[in-house]
Amino acid sequence: MSEPVSTPRGSRRSLGPRPDKAALVLSGGGARGAYEVGVMTGIVEVLGLGAEGASPFDVFTGTSVGAINATYLAAHADRADLGVAGLANTWESLELSRDLRLDPAGLLGWPRNLPFLSRTRRARGDSGEHYGRAVLDPRPLEHIVEKTVPWQRLDANVREGVVRALMVSALDVAGGRTTLFSHLAEGTHMAPSRDKRRVQREGPITAEHVLASAAIPMLYPARRIGDAYYCDGGLRFNTPISPAIRAGATRLVVVSLLHPNPPASRLRTALPQYPNPMFLLGKVLNALLLDPVDYDLQVLARLNRLIEVLEETLPPAELAEVMRVITEERGLHYRHVRTLVFRPSEDIGVLAGEYLREEHPRWRGAAKLVGAALRRARDLGQSVETDLGSFLLFDGGFAKTLMDLGHRDAKRRADEVRAFFAPPGKPGTLPR
Fold first, then answer.
1. Contact indicator for 241, 274 with CB cutoff of 8 Å
2. What is the pTM of this model?
């Protein structure tokens, strides 16, 4: 539910923006996004953050489910702990039977006000003009995003500089370009990209922008904003690192949802039979939404190394000339960016397969059918993982499993977390 805008004592509003901006970068991955919440819970606990004091982040960026999490946290950035406990409660309260509904009419593109469709659809008067075709009914997700994020509070946080920038990405279906929806505080400059595949739109971010970013093609319907339809931004831009840097961030906390060292079962090259469509769809989603994350991080690491070499070898005048040319070409010069990257220490696809082995009495109707279909995808050959299940298991029990994993992963790296947020010369302390 929406919350009143508050001004806790010691908030950023009285301190002004920090020159050294920290950004939170959250990637997409459907139900895997619960892991991001666990990581944030661990960071808040390690830093000893509560309701009062300044948020550790100035810039928030996200794609797909990361856009939902990032928007919620930005809306609570007037609290040092970002209200992360409330976000965790939202994830833990999910129920597959309620929050994952099949929508055959939506997939076929039928008008939803035909006489043989449900009374609730006719009463809603949804003729399909606002949505594209998809397997899943978008209304449960709409309800969560619209009612859980305090939108007025988000606007106030940006207006008063508590949040310097909030950015979510979505793919323009017709134009094929990634659109970066950006809500910027006064005085925040975002260097435009010279990449013609990307376009920036500035203005207040609403539930429609976030839902567009989270619209996984064929699973959730594309969203119409203005004259264009948009879908999941992760198809081309799953880890929005570049926008955070262009908005002035010099330190990034990045949460990936892909296990860095897959088990041997994932490296096999042979299957006992042709994979069923559910298995294939899970692999496709992995390739489209998760695999680009590591590439983006590798590029950032290479750039950091390149900058170090240039600074060590070039005289100041020559270094300045190199940076001038780079700025002309890309609209922004290179600079060293510190990163703190979290990846799940256990394979989330395997965890989804294990979760599907259990009996879940709360699952009824379509949820039971979905669970059975995901279980069949998992049971292909010797496979124990279900990638598709890891995207679609919007269930509180599975969410808690992933949040616990993220929490443990963050707590294990407590010293790194404290060092990352410590001001220069004062290791282990959080800047206020």
1. no
2. 0.81
Quick count: other Cβ atoms within 10 Å of Cβ 84?
Answer: 23
Q: Name, in order, each residue with C-beta under 8 angstroms of 145's C-beta and a sequence gap of 6 or more.
A: 68, 71, 207, 210, 211, 214
Q: Return the structure tokens found at 281.
A: 């769809």
Closest CA to 294 of 239, 240, 246: 239
Q: What are φ and ψ of residue 376, in 5° steps? A: -65, -40
Tokens representing residue 408 in the block: 């443990």
Cα-based angle 52, 55, 60 (whole degrees, multiple of 5) = 150
Provide the CA 8 distance to its chain's centre, in angstroms. Answer: 27
SS3 at position 179: strand
CA-CA distances (angstroms) from residue 352 to 39, 128, 263?
18, 33, 14
Look-up: residue for tokens 């279900």?
386
Closest CA to 28 of 282, 166, 213: 213
Break the chain down into helix, strand, coil percent, rounded to 5: 45, 15, 40
DSSP code for 252: E
Helix (H) or strand (E) holding 373: helix 366-378
| Cα 256 from Cα 342, distance rounded (Å) | 6
Inform me whether the pLDDT recorded for 114 exceeds 50.
Answer: no
Report helix angle 34-47 to 65-75, nearest 10.
30
d(CA 29, CA 35): 10
Using CA atoms, how far apart are residues 389 and 34, in angstroms rounded to an integer?
Answer: 14
353-406 pLDDT, tens digit per residue, is 888 877 776 776 556 666 665 666 555 543 444 677 788 889 999 999 999 999
Reported as a single tens digit per residue, the pLDDT across 34-76 is 999 999 999 999 999 999 988 999 999 999 899 999 999 999 9
Q: Output phi, psi for 27, to 5 deg.
A: -90, 175
Longest dimension (CA), the chain: 76
Integer angstrom CA distances of residue 140 from 67, 146, 176, 423: 17, 10, 27, 42
User: Are 168 and 244 within 8 A, CB to CB?
Assistant: no
Do the Cβ atoms of 41 and 84 come closer than 8 Å? yes
Beta strands 59-63 and 165-172 are: parallel
Give the separation between CA 131 and CA 187, rounded to whole angstroms: 36
Task: Give 257: exposed, middle or buried? Use CB within 10 Å, 0-12, 13-18, 19+.
Answer: buried
